[in-house]
Amino acid sequence: MTSGLSILAISRLNVYSVTTYTGAAELWSRMGRKDEVVLGVDLGTTNSAVAVFRDDSAEVLTNDIDKRTTPSCVYVRDLERQVGEAALRLAASFPFNTVRNVKSVLGRTSVPKGEAPLGPVVTRDGAVKKSISIVIDNTEAAISLSPEEIAATLLLELKKAAEQHLQTEVSLAVLAVPSYFNASQRKAVMDAANLAGLRVPFIMNETTAAAMAYAHDRDGEEKTVLIVDVGGGGSSAAVVKVALNQVEVMAHSDVRLPGGEDFDDRMMQYLTQCIKRDLGAEALDPRDCEILRAQWTKAKEKLSRIPQATISIFLPGLGKEFRCDVKRADFEEECAEHFKSITDGLLATLKRAEVKPEQLGEVLLVGGSSRIPQLRSLVQELVKGKPLCKAVNPDEAVAKGAALMAAKRVELKQEVLSLETRIRMGNKEVIVPANTKLPREIPLVEDANIEILQKVGRGNAMARIFDSRLPSAHLLGIYHSGFVQFGNRIQGKIDCRLDGCLPSAVLRSLAKRMQRRQENERIESQRVESKNALEDLLRHVRGLEIPDDGFRNDLVALRDKCEKKLQWLNEYGNRQFAEYDNLRTEIADALNDYNAKREAERTRVEAREQLCRTLQEIPSNVKSVSGRNEPGDDRVVAAVVRLPAIEGRSSLCRTPAAKGLSLFISEVLLQLPREEVLNDKFDERVLKLHKRCTDRLAWTLDNPDASEEEYIRFRDKVSAAADEIHSDRQRHAADLRKAEVRKTFESRVQTTLQSTNIKEGPNNALYKSYCQDIEELCRDALGWLRSSRGSLADERELSDRLRVFETEAAGIHRNYGEQVAAEQRRAEAFRAAEQKVLQALNLKVLEGHPCYEEAEALKKSSRKHLSLLKHESDLSTEMLEKLIESIDTGFATLEQKRVEEEQKLMNWILTLEQELTDGLQEFDNDPLLVQLEKCCRRQLMERQPRPSLQVIGHALYAVRNVLGHLRQYRDSQQKRQEAASGAEAAYHEAYAVGSKLLSYLGFPVLRPPQPARQSLCSRVTWTPGVSTSSSEQAQSQFGDPEQPLPPPPQPAAKAVSSHAVWIVNERAQSQYQPMDFTSGDLGADKMEVDSDEGAVCGRRLGTGGARRSAHGGLHGADRGPRGRGRARPSVAVSAPCPGLRGRGRTPGAGAGRQEL
């Protein structure tokens, strides 16, 4: 039978099975609605950020000081709370009242000894079992607060800033936590959010949130991405597969890696040592440490941009000023161990995901500390040069990803368990390894003690997060959010408290306390705002300038009243809001009354002045009326001028009817012109009515006792006649305007029609089509004008038709212009493409040139393009631009290859030049090397055009061989000189022993003769030969220049002869001195040493004795791989040998000549 929790988990699998507390499913259903605002919150150790999804993008909200991130720092003193930048500024002055990094102690049962996650603020065991509390050292008494309260204060400030920015209330938020947080820590974060008034439908990993920000609206194929989050509290990594708005997590790092706080702690130790070294004292005062930490944080940000930063601060605890220049190299050296730990963690994460660095598509670095250059370089090196994504802000990626999750804009296809979890049930233990796909359900042993262990803190040790007996529990679920939930068959789920978290009753009490504090803060804020507003108003009124008018006394009295209220406000500054508000309203009303009186008086004075100006301008206005056609303003001026006379005459009428008729006729006369006319066909009627009214007015004045009916009847007739004239005039004016509009319409049509002429314009399809469209439009317009409907159309309809005609004509003309411009662009692109193709086809590269293959490929593609251009002349501009881009790419590739080959050639030439220069220095300007240097410089280095790379390589190879043989020859000479010295010593020793023997036998003593010393070093001369012209012959002589040089040849075995002759030239100035030993006579004193038999004897050798050198290396082994066709140095060596006389090659025949 399937359990209730199992059915519930399966039914809610599409919503990540977030059934970890009551109402979670209902909250999940509210996510993604357009009318529901759900925040994405990155609750960071150092900084926090809030984002929301609106207008099709995730937007990071600013706080009250218009910054996008808020420091995760809280200042507590009595009932006062300061959060963010304000708390950070107070940290140096009140280090024991300022809590930072509170997230690092959430959900923990204890803090290991030696750790100080909250800086100078200490922690101790909480009042609730298996929990901790934070001790705030107040001036009056110590205050103990839970980590959830501190975190709730921070979240509440973020919530207020978001509500102020959005102008709406917010109650839902998706939180992001590090992947190394266990279930207790995640539950503590959710409890803190609930205390702040935020209900949390989902908690996600920070690396997963960053991956969602990366995947949002990202086109392209699916690729594997390494997410590295280097935050303040620690670092974590994840390997994910990312597609368009889809994220699939493959593996998480299962341990907390070093983060920004670890870097800061290490550098604080370094700076403390510098203080001790420079100032001779240790910085133990907490204020000094906080000041130093704040300055180091600023310097660390600078070191990400510049190689060195200066820290200059005053330490109040020591009473001294400290100045230090911190280099980026020092920071990298001190934190090298932490950097290595991070890279090792990344490698382990890749290994668990079974992904090689070469398989990664991109790397995303998030978190503030991810900007460290050394860390970025190490990550780049680790991933084999894969690109680092720069499109996502490292400080905002997590918050944006949480907002996208809240709006359900990115799908989380798969999440894995970040920490290894062990469940012990009596004698049974179940291990859920890290990176297990979620959700996961584990059956439990009924009525057994259940113990759950997960990692926590900085180490790898397992910590107990639950240890209790649940008789009714039979199933344990682990969900996408990282929570664990027990379930039974009846209720479906069981609420239980994890170690490190607070019980529900304590949370309810803390929630009420926070609500009371919020209400007190609201009332106090309202009171302070009202007081400040009252004080501003009083100071404003007191500063008003006293006017010199009739309201002077009123303002003086009001100012005196404000002065007294300011004194009262300074004495009684702790009154309630209502009292301040009532007083402010009273002062504001008095000020408004004063301003209203002054404004009324000012309006009256301005009206009077305006009337006076109008009366002064009347004569000039009346004088200018006679030349006008419209009576509009003239009637008003005339009325102003004639009104006194009319009123005077009407006063003579005795009855009200006569008086009324008189005024009516006067009004009609004011509306009708007198001397001037409108110059139209109604002038005669107007003049007749004018005369009739004038006569009737005179009759009315002469007959004041006429009956009222007669007055009324005449008034109606005059009124009807005036209305008829006015209507006829309006109708006539409308007909005139209509005729004018019709004439304008026809003129526009004819002008437009005449402007297009197919015969006179360009002979192409576009212009013909344009002319046809214009002619059709004009025919339609003329047809409508000449139709019955067009004849009866009024002015408005004609104007509308004219506007439509002009709009359509302008549209046709605009479309034609755009088509002509597009055709011109296409023609230009066609010509450019044709030129590019011909340019590519005319490219000439010799066969065998390194760029030959690229040039042939470019020619091949250009032939295809040329065929396409010939057979399809109507190619679109886009296709032509792609064709040009393809050819340009080919040229760019060819040019790049040419530049690379040229650079390689120059490198080889420089290497050849360097080899020759070093050889000349090493062998003291040997003639052979001097000649080689001259020839190579003339034929290879300075020759234009330059020889091929292969020729330079062969020359370099040959020069290296020459230098190797010369070094071998020099070493052989040194060995010969050492052997000659030993032979001479033995020779003298033999003479000494023989002399003793002769003396003993009574014979005279012999003195050893002094042999003439002469160096065996031959003079090296350059013998020009026949050089090869082809690179194949050079390669056959010198070998392949791409292959490494062979080791220098060793002397042949026959070089060690039983008869070795060593001759030393005392005049030699160095070990390698070119000499000429071609002469046959070596002098009078020469000796031979028989090394095989050990016999020592002196012998005078005759002139011209010579033989081949017993060493043998000068002729055989030293020749190297060079052929006979190439010029080579010639070394002539003449050496004495017993029995060699004359010039022949047979023993005693003469001297032999050897070549090197």
TrEMBL record:
Stretches with biased composition (Gly residues): 1145-1156
Name of the protein this chain belongs to: Chaperone protein DnaK 2-like isoform X6
InterPro entries associated with the record: ATPase_NBD, Heat_shock_70_CS, Hsp_70_fam
Gene Ontology molecular function: ATP binding; ATP-dependent protein folding chaperone
Gene encoding the protein: LOC117641867
Family membership: Belongs to the heat shock protein 70 family.
Keyword Ribonucleoprotein among UniProt keywords: no
GO CC field: endoplasmic reticulum chaperone complex
Top-rank taxon: Eukaryota
PROSITE patterns the UniProt entry points to: HSP70_1 (PS00297), HSP70_3 (PS01036)
Keywords tagged on the record: ATP-binding, Coiled coil, Nucleotide-binding
Coiled-coil blocks: 511-540
Signal peptide: none
